[in-house]
């Protein structure tokens, strides 16, 4: 079947009034919303007996696979979607798959370690392809709903997290730094708080009355989670996301955004002191570390030493890298306790080398060009996606936001929406990634 025929067949669903009742679409939205809270609950319950559920983010990967299956049930055609990609995007994707397969299966020093992580990387890519294709066709009329589902999921995660922490208050053996509630370190709480605040407050700009109030409450909850994490990086990334929203907003709406952001922070900052079971949590930790003057390595929590050793390892194998799942045992500066260098670019170069990282960059080249044009056409959904994406990528420069499965799922969701293009009549979308 030709691409034109595939587009024609998919197009009626894009504008059909019955489309919102389709069970695959409803199932996909529910899956995105429930992924984070189920991950929190599953990781906590199974931490002692089945730690792989937490460390390999099994509920998140399962959620992405479920969305792919639901997309197929609603007409997703992988061959047609691949054919619609721009040649550079398709070439980058092919090169990336070849590079990561070669590195992980033939070069990695510990050949068994990369397999679950490589599978997760491939699932992320397929999830992105399926969501991009469906948001440009059968699910185009519900694009913003996927952002609302992600926002609701992060809020539900926060509720589950808070309930579990309250239940563990009297447990002397609980690990208040590692936590284990959908995160392996309290700093990662910002992976949920930043996109929640970004999406909620971006969508508040197009809301009125109760909708705007509810969105502001969501923003306050997102900032609360971010501050409770004790992460300077996450709080700065959250504020950067607010700046992105302001830049993309018409000038007349910026004052209203500023009022809602200040209101959210006015609630979140004092409320963060209600949940500080350990000195590694909360605003005091952010302020004490932010004002630390004990040298650059101490100020960066050892990152400079980790980055220097990671770069030396990259230089040893610049073309194809070392493979996934190798970092913990090979980079001594991490003291056998971390799985990534806390910098996304170094992470990709270490794992996949110049070949895999360059192919990934080629695959996303069209996205970069599309984002440069975003300011001229940004609606509520685009602003929310751009803000959440910016916040998580900013965190990834100093944390592991592009290593852990949940924030990657949110990043991929935002990229799919931003690249889907605007539906026009019965024409299939495609955005920056399409021919």
TrEMBL record:
Localization (cell): Membrane
Q: Where is the O-antigen ligase-related domain?
A: 221-359
Q: Which keywords does this chain's UniProt record carry?
A: Membrane, Transmembrane, Transmembrane helix
Transmembrane annotation, as ranges: 25-47, 53-76, 88-109, 115-134, 146-166, 186-204, 211-227, 233-250, 257-276, 349-372, 384-406
Q: Which Pfam families match?
A: Wzy_C (PF04932)
Q: How does it sit in the membrane?
A: Multi-pass membrane protein
UniProt name for this protein:
O-antigen ligase-related domain-containing protein
């Amino acid at each position: 079947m030709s691409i034109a025929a595939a587009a024609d067949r998919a197009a009626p669903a894009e504008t059909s009034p019955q489309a919102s009742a389709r069970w695959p679409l409803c199932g996909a939205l529910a899956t995105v919303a429930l992924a984070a809270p189920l991950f929190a609950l599953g990781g906590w319950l199974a931490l002692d007996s089945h730690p792989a559920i937490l460390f390999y983010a099994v509920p998140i990967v399962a959620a992405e696979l479920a969305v792919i299956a639901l997309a197929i049930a609603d007409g997703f055609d992988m061959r047609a979607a691949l054919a619609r990609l721009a040649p550079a995007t398709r070439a980058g994707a092919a090169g990336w798959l070849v590079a990561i397969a070669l590195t992980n299966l033939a070069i990695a020093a510990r050949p068994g370690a990369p397999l679950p992580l490589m599978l997760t990387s491939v699932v992320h890519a397929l999830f992105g392809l399926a969501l991009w294709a469906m948001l440009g066709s059968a699910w185009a009329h519900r694009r913003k709903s996927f952002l609302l589902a992600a926002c609701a999921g992060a809020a539900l995660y926060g509720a589950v997290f808070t309930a579990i922490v309250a239940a563990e208050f009297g447990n002397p053996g609980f690990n208040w730094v590692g936590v284990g509630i959908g995160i392996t370190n309290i700093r990662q709480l910002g992976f949920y708080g930043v996109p929640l605040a970004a999406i909620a407050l971006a969508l508040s700009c197009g809301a009125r009355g109760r909708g705007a109030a509810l969105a502001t409450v969501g923003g306050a909850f997102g900032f609360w989670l971010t501050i409770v994490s004790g992460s300077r990086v996450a709080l700065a990334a959250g504020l950067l996301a607010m700046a992105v929203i302001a830049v993309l907003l018409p000038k007349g709406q910026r004052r209203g955004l500023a009022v809602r952001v200040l209101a959210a922070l006015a609630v979140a900052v004092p409320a963060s002191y209600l949940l500080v079971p350990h000195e590694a949590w909360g605003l005091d930790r952010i302020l004490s570390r932010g004002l630390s003057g004990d040298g650059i390595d101490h100020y960066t929590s050892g990152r400079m030493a980790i980055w220097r050793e990671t770069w030396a390892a990259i230089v040893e194998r610049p073309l194809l890298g070392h493979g996934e799942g190798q970092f913990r045992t090979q980079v001594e500066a991490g003291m056998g306790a971390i799985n990534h260098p806390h910098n996304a670019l170094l992470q990709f170069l270490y794992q996949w080398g110049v070949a895999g990282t360059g192919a990934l960059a080629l695959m996303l080249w069209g996205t970069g060009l599309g984002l440069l044009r975003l300011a001229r056409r940004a609606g509520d959904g685009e602003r929310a996606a751009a803000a959440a994406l910016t916040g998580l990528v900013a965190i990834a420069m100093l944390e592991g936001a592009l290593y852990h499965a949940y924030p990657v799922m949110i990043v991929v969701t935002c990229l799919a929406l931003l690249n889907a293009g605007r539906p026009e009549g019965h024409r299939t979308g495609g955005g920056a990634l399409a021919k």
